[in-house]
Amino acid sequence: MTTATLSTPLQPASARPDPLGRRYGRMWGRVPRELGYLALTAIIGLVVSITAWGVIGAGSAFVVLGVALLIALMLASRYLGVFDLRRLRWAGTRPIAAPTWDRPFAGKRFLRAVGDVIADPHYWLYALHAAVVTPVLALITFVVWSTWLGTALVAITSPAWATITLANGDSLWNGDRGGENVVGLVLFLTGAGSDAAATGWGIAGVTALGLLMLALLPFITRGATLAHWGAARLLLSRFASEDLRGEVARVDAARLAAVTAEDTALRRLERDIHDGPQQRLLRLQMELSTAERRLDGTRPEATESIAAARRLAAETLDELRALAQGFAPPLLQDRGLSAALGALGHRGAVPVETAIDLPADVPDAVERSLYFVAAELTANAIKHSGATKVRLEARTEDAGASRALVLSVQDDGRGGARIVPGHGLAGAVDRLTGLGGTLTVTSPEGGPTTAAVRVPLP
Predict the structure, then answer these.
(1) Which parts of the chain span the membrane according to its record (predicted)?
(2) What are phi and psi of 103, to 5 degrees?
(3) Residue that finishes a domain, picked among 182, 205, 232
(4) Residue 318 sits in the same domain as residue 355
(5) Which of 327, 362, 384 is the last residue of a domain?
(6) For residues 385 and 379, what is the distance between their CA atoms, to the nearest angstrom?
(7) b/e string for 412-447 if b means 16 or more Cβ within 10 A?
(8) Residue 450 within any structural domain of the chain
(9) Which tens digit of pLDDT belongs to each residue from 235-253?
């Protein structure tokens, strides 16, 4: 006989649901803060509504004064909204991500600052929340929670009030006449005030009702607070597009940091090659030449070996120099990207016409990568297209607040160029991807071919 035993893994303490009593106790723990938030919100809503309607009245009478008061109201609404978000968090609700604000008049002319305030949709939403939504919602929630709490307290204390006698000798809970408050009204409507026993049971029932209402008070205050939280979430929170822009900015910063780190590492390696093995190989060549002269043909075998070693050292030195120039040509480091791109037109067997108009503030990492991309595109056009003429253009373009460096290589060759993985154009694409740039190749059969590069500049 086979026995199968099924075991259920124990849930971690953090995954187990809290007992109902503990959750209810936490709700009661939030009631004082929620009541404080709701009461202060009712006061703020009353004051703001009176002020807002006063501003509207003044603005309708005096246009210039009205515009000034409107700007003041929008600025005040911003700080009032920020204060409301902090109070909501203090009341125990989930935090709401506020917009990223700047100081409205810091480093700006007055009219520019006013225009920025008017053009910012967050100011209008905050003004709507402060002048319209908060007063209306505060009035509704105040009526609900204050009536609920007041009724519960009056009902709970009904046994104490039953002993109070009016000046004319009647009881305050005179059920025959409807009494003087809600408990007496209940006794009157139920007919419980006609005899003492029924009145006692009626008062006990009203007390139980008050206790039930008081037990449900955390749900009332929580619901009212969440109503304000929902309005704030709708009107006072940051736009999703702002989060997206922030994420894009962080990615761009990380990408630029990676490219800059690579550029710094290559520069350090180039300097180390120049100052280390390149200098030692140069010294080795000199020492071998000196040894060759000292032998002066007395030992032909040794002289031949030294000559071979000297040639090998010279070849190694040339390879190191070529390797160092592969990191960045000296012209690029000394005179910048414009001069280095201009020199590309004098290196190939095919004439290269250049039209370069670049600023001097191009970042070093961008200069290095763009130089090698331009060199790759130019070399491809000369070697593989069968072109008789190549044109290299480089300039910057401004599009509003953004700026980009645009580079193009055109040839009159046979066309048919494609971006194939593992080949030169694919390597150019990889370099441009690190800069956030793009490479577009237009090369119909029969030509001409145009390779266009676009790289955003900081």
Answers:
(1) 35-56, 62-80, 123-145, 198-220
(2) -70, 120
(3) 232
(4) no
(5) 327
(6) 10
(7) bbbbebeeeeeebbeebbebbeebbbebebebeeeb
(8) yes
(9) 988 887 766 666 666 666 6
8 A C-beta contact, residue 154 and residue 182? yes
Report yes or no: 93 and 39 within 8 Å, Cβ to Cβ: no
Q: Are residues 226 and 145 in the same domain?
A: yes
DSSP string, 67-124: HHHHHHHHHHHHHHHHHHHHHHHHTTPPP--------TTTTS-HHHHHHHHHH-HHHH
Q: Encode pLDDT of 409-437 as tens digits.
A: 888 878 777 777 766 677 777 777 767 77
Q: How many domains does the chain have?
A: 3
CATH number at residue 344: 3.30.565.10
Bridge partners (DSSP) listed for residue 441: 451
- Cross-sheet strand order for the sheet of 449-457: 352-357, 390-399, 402-411, 449-457, 438-442
Same domain, 170 and 263: no
H or E element in which residue 394 lies: strand 390-399
Element (H, E) at 154: helix 134-156
Q: In whole angstroms, give the CA distance from residue 165 to residue 172.
A: 6
Q: Are residues 184 and 252 in the same domain?
A: no
Rounded mean pLDDT, 56-81 = 73
Residue 338, domain extent:
331-457
